[in-house]
Amino acid sequence: xVDPTIAADGHTYERSAxxxxxxxxxxxxxxxQPLSHTRLVSNQAAKLAIASQLSRLQCSDDMSxxxxxxxxxxxxxGIPCFAWGYHAFLSA
Length: 92
Fold this sequence. Notes:
This protein is of the alpha+beta class. The chain is built from three helices and five strands.
């Protein structure tokens, strides 16, 4: 996740993914309920947490123990996210 963004439903999304979603729907991709507005707010706490965790992760070329894939990483942070580009939704 590069630019975590909070939508009106309170969920965090990748900005580009939710912007694409909003071009064809005004419903929450998570709840299916109408969004009260389409303004997006940067989730600075998530961005800092991601940057902090990335700086601490040490992945070797052979993907040895201690290296996370994206899904494991987001679950570890406890950040619900929706990334439409690769159909991954993770809830804490």
